[in-house]
Specification:
Blueprint lengths: L1 H33 L21 E4 L5 E4 L9 E5 L5 H16 L3 E6 L3 H10 L7 E3 L1 H7 L6 E5 L5 E6 L3 H13 L4 H7 L7
Parallel strand pairs: 3-4, 4-5
Antiparallel strand pairs: 1-2, 3-6, 6-7
């Protein structure tokens, strides 16, 4: 008799636990729908998404030149990544940026502003080819970059397709996602998103 009662109580406990897990899974689903996506934060200064990127010719650390803006000779999207040797987030994000640009087939160009020797040391430490790094403060001024790390995605036609502050791979991915969806930024996505019904 005691064995039957204990078995019955065990089954009641298992059923109650299953109901609790299902209720919790439902709540997680509701929270997932309400949480805004993580994305690069566009600051609203300087040239805007959809406009032509400023056309500049800059000097790379290798001694050659690189073009900012205008049609891309290879027809690839270009990722301008603004960094500084004194920015800890920039340094922690650099390996991710390199891997991301490679996996997405983006033409990567790092833009720095400061001591050329410090920029060279940074490039060497993170295995950045000198021709992929330009110490060009005029580019930051043209795009009105006030905070780092900042990224700008430029189309093969020389148009700004996405831009914003980035500090993770998710932020970088939001730039290409915004481009694929035809949106200017994650803020535009949130503005178009229908309001979630209240529980």
């Amino acid at each position: 008799m005691i064995l039957l009662v204990s078995q019955a109580m065990l089954w009641v406990a298992i059923i109650a636990l299953a109901v609790a897990v299902l209720a919790l899974a439902r709540q997680v689903g509701v929270l997932h729908e309400r949480i805004a996506p993580v994305g690069a934060l566009a600051l609203g200064r300087g040239p805007q998404t959809g406009e032509a990127a400023p056309r500049l010719t800059v000097r790379t650390l290798a001694g050659g030149s690189a073009e900012i803006g205008g049609p891309a000779p290879g027809g690839a999207l270009r990722l301008l990544f603004f960094v500084s040797p004194t920015c800890p987030i920039c340094k922690s994000l650099l390996p991710t940026v390199r891997a991301f640009a490679q996996s997405e087939r983006l033409e990567l160009l790092l833009i720095g502003d400061g001591d050329p020797d410090a920029q060279r040391q940074m490039a060497q430490r993170f295995a950045i080819a000198p021709e992929r790094f330009a110490n060009a403060p005029e580019v930051g001024r043209a795009f009105q970059v006030a905070k780092l790390p900042y990224a700008v995605l430029v189309s093969e036609l020389g148009l700004i397709v996405a831009q914003g502050l980035v500090n993770s791979r998710e932020h970088l991915e939001s730039l290409t996602t915004a481009h694929e969806l035809g949106l200017r930024s994650v803020q535009e996505y949130l503005a178009r998103r229908p309001a979630a019904p209240s529980a």
